[in-house]
Structure formats: C-alpha cells, structure tokens
Design goal:
The chain is mostly beta strands. 11% of the residues lie in helices and 28% in strands. The chain contains two helices and 15 strands. The longest helix is centred in the first third of the chain and has 27 residues. About 6% of the residues have low confidence. Bound molecules: magnesium ion. Magnesium ion binds next to strand 7 and strand 8.
C-alpha cells in the first residue's frame, strides 16, 4: 500500500467514526436509538428503535421473595380479606394461614381468592405439617389451582414416596417436576410460578393450551410446560372453554398445610412470548 493511499483510508475511517458519533450524540440528547436499522419481525419497530416505549418502572422488594411495587398482595400475614373459604375461613395464626381440620370446617374447604386472574406471576410460601403423618398423597397435600382448574401440586415431598406426577412441583396427573428440591416438613418453602391461561376460539375450541413455569425453592421444576387441561385425579385432563379470568384456589386435601407471603402480578398480553414472526401467540 502506498503512503498516500493509507492516509486516505485513515481519513475515511475517521470521517465515518465522527459521523457515527455525531449521529449517536444527536439522538442520545433526544431519544437514544436508531431509525436507520432494519425492521424487526412484526413490522412495527426498527432494531434499537428510539420510539419503542421504555419498560414500566417497578420497584423490587427490599428482600428476596418480597412483593414488588406492582404486585397484588393476596396474603401478608395480617388478614384473610383477599380470600373466602368454601365452607369456613382458614386458620390465621402468627402470620400464617393454615388449612383447618375437616371436623371444624364441616367438610372439604378450599380457599378461593376473591379476585379473578388470567395470566399471572405468583409467589407463595408454604409449610408442610411436622411431624409428618401418613404417607404418599396423604402427607402435606394441597395445591395451587389456577383459574380453579389447573393444579400445580403442593405435597410434603421430603422422603415421601408417591407417584411422580403427583409429587410437589408436578403439574398434577401429567408432568412430574424436573427435580425434587423439597425442604424438610416444618420448613418454609417458596413457589414462584408463571401461569399463562389457555386461549379459546369463539366456538370453544382450544387455540393455545395453558402453560406453566415453576420454581420451587428457587429451583426450576416446570419450564413453560403445556398443561393437559382441567386437573382430575386418575384421569387425563381435557380443556373446556371458560372465561379469561377466574379465581386462584388453594386446595384443602385434609392436611394442615400453612401458607404465607402470597402475591401475584397479573401479566399483560405482551407477557406471552412472541414467536419469530412477532405475532405474540
Ligand atoms: Mg393437591
């Protein structure tokens, strides 16, 4: 390369660099981003589009597991106001609520949220009774029934043999958890669950199943797992069309399971993962 050709190239690179910096700075003073970039799938936004809305600011809790600023508190240990028992209130004692005995309730007594939800992120903590009594499905059984239909199982899963699709972390009667990260009975355990409700066509046919992602004690147990349909014991679940929202139900399975720190974040439509066409379903 001759000397003057090399200098020309350096000048060209410098000019280009200055041009890019000037453009970036001009946009940074207004709205950072680029409009000379290709369009993303969906045809709405450029790559790094400056007009794409910034995410809503949410203040996280001061401590892990605490409710962020946009959460709906379903139970903070002080009152059962967000719930109704099918037959009677659940027991509230020292910041925890517990499934009451069948004798005091007069029969099966599930707990139902007064508010209805569709797509949600849920945090919940539970504690299996100690010392453990009985075995298999009769030991610390409860469950989270999204939309009162789709159960993510709660069970005392510590050293308790049972069928895999019925242990803690299971999509009951369908999908065992990926692993069993159970704590001992008597210790508080956490569930963090993202539930995506099913979608139905106007004629009631299924467009998209429900999906669930669940972490038990911070460990992934279900990863965007499609659900079979309404949970039924000893039966293959099926879908029956229903509305876009329904209550969350905590199961009374005749075990004195306790709960604390329950909050949810209803999720917007764009929380449903977009496909590579950018269509969102
Ligand atoms: Mg159950």
């Amino acid at each position: 390369m001759k000397g003057n050709e090399g200098m020309k190239r350096i000048h060209a690179v410098m000019a280009m660099t200055v041009g890019i910096m000037a453009g970036t700075l001009a946009q940074a003073a207004d709205k950072p981003g680029f409009t000379d970039t290709p369009m993303l799938p969906g045809g709405k936004w450029h790559v790094h589009d400056p007009d794409r809305p910034a995410p809503t600011v949410v203040t996280p809790a001061a401590t892990p597991g605490g409710a962020p600023s946009d959460a709906i508190i379903l139970f903070d240990g002080s009152s059962l106001d967000a719930w109704r028992g099918e037959r009677a209130p659940w027991t509230l004692d020292r910041g925890a609520m517990t499934v009451p005995s069948r004798a005091s309730s007069g029969g099966e007594n599930n707990l139902i949220s007064k508010q209805a939800f569709g797509d949600v992120q849920l945090h919940l903590e539970f504690r299996s009774p100690t010392p453990p009594q009985k075995s298999s499905q009769d030991r610390g059984n409860s469950g989270i029934w999204f939309m009162q239909r789709y159960e993510v199982q709660i069970l005392d899963g510590y050293d308790n043999a049972t069928y895999a699709d019925g242990t803690v972390g299971a999509v009951y009667a369908w999908k065992p958890p990926l692993v069993n990260p159970s704590r001992r009975p008597g210790e508080w355990q956490s569930y963090d669950i993202i539930f995506e409700r099913p979608r139905f066509a106007a004629d009631g046919s299924l467009l998209r199943p429900a999906y669930v992602t669940a972490l038990l004690n911070g460990v992934l147990v279900q990863n965007h797992q499609a659900m079979l349909g309404t949970t039924v014991w000893r039966t293959v679940g099926q879908y029956q069309a229903h509305g876009d929202t329904a209550p969350i139900q905590l199961q009374d399975h005749d075990s004195a399971v306790s709960f604390r720190n329950i909050w949810v974040r209803p999720l917007p439509e764009d929380a449903i993962a977009q496909d590579l066409k950018g269509t969102g379903q």
